[in-house]
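Hypothesis: this fold can be encoded by more than one sequence.
Test: take the structure tokens below, design a sequence, compare later.
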């Protein structure tokens, strides 16, 4: 039975974006698995407050994550044939995402911002650069999929943001970059920082008394 496209809502699109960033769907023998892996050091609040409740809602069953401190990872990894087939039907690539991952036609344009919110929460970076004691924020997302970053760039420009996608590593990957305070504020207003670590960094920037100027760069 094919997936009912009317079910594609904010939650589904956010989940798809999170998977596009730090997730995958794979086949191992008879098992069809879905995985999301993030950094154990600063993504645990994101898993507790966003990822697990979202996955539970979509699956309609309880999902647990495990911590792997030796490897610096926090992850969920489960077998769910129905969800796997739904994601496949929506266009999510099986195995390595590579350049095949993008915002699929099955997601309406008015929901793209939810995809970008999930993508940024996992693969994005709010960089705060100290340039001669002047702090300069920058919205960044890196990927080997130019089509996905190009879609994201076009959406952000529709929201009035100014930036571009640049080739790095001799064209093997790409970086979306939207620099400046205005871009940062627009991104938060139009897309939102759903990963607590990004919201915390935004708040630190907006309250200069909480920022250490001696730090050359506050990386994610």
């Amino acid at each position: 039975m094919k997936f009912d496209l009317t079910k594609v809502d904010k939650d589904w699109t956010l989940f798809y974006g999170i998977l596009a960033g730090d997730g995958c769907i794979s086949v191992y023998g008879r098992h069809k698995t879905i995985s999301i892996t993030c950094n154990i050091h600063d993504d645990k609040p994101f898993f507790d407050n966003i990822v697990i409740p979202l996955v539970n809602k979509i699956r309609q069953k309880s999902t647990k994550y495990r911590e792997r401190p030796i490897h610096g990872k926090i992850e969920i990894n489960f077998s769910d044939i129905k969800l796997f087939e739904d994601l496949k039907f929506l266009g999510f690539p099986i195995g390595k995402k590579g350049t095949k991952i993008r915002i699929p036609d099955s997601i309406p344009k008015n929901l793209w911002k939810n995809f970008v919110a999930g993508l940024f929460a996992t693969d994005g970076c709010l960089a705060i650069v100290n340039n001669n004691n002047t702090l300069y924020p920058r919205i960044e997302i890196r990927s080997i999929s130019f089509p996905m970053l190009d879609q994201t760039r076009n959406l952000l420009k529709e929201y009035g943001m100014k930036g571009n996608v640049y080739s790095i590593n001799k064209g093997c990957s790409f970086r979306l970059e939207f620099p400046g305070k205005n871009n940062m504020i627009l991104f938060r207003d139009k897309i939102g920082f759903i990963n607590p670590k990004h919201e915390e960094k935004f708040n630190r920037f907006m309250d200069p008394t909480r920022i250490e100027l001696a730090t050359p760069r506050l990386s994610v």
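Strands lie at 23-28, 31-39, 66-68, 73-79, 124-131, 134-143, 164-168, 173-179, 217-218. The helical segments are 10-22, 44-59, 81-90, 112-123, 146-158, 181-190, 196-206.
Hypothesis status: open.
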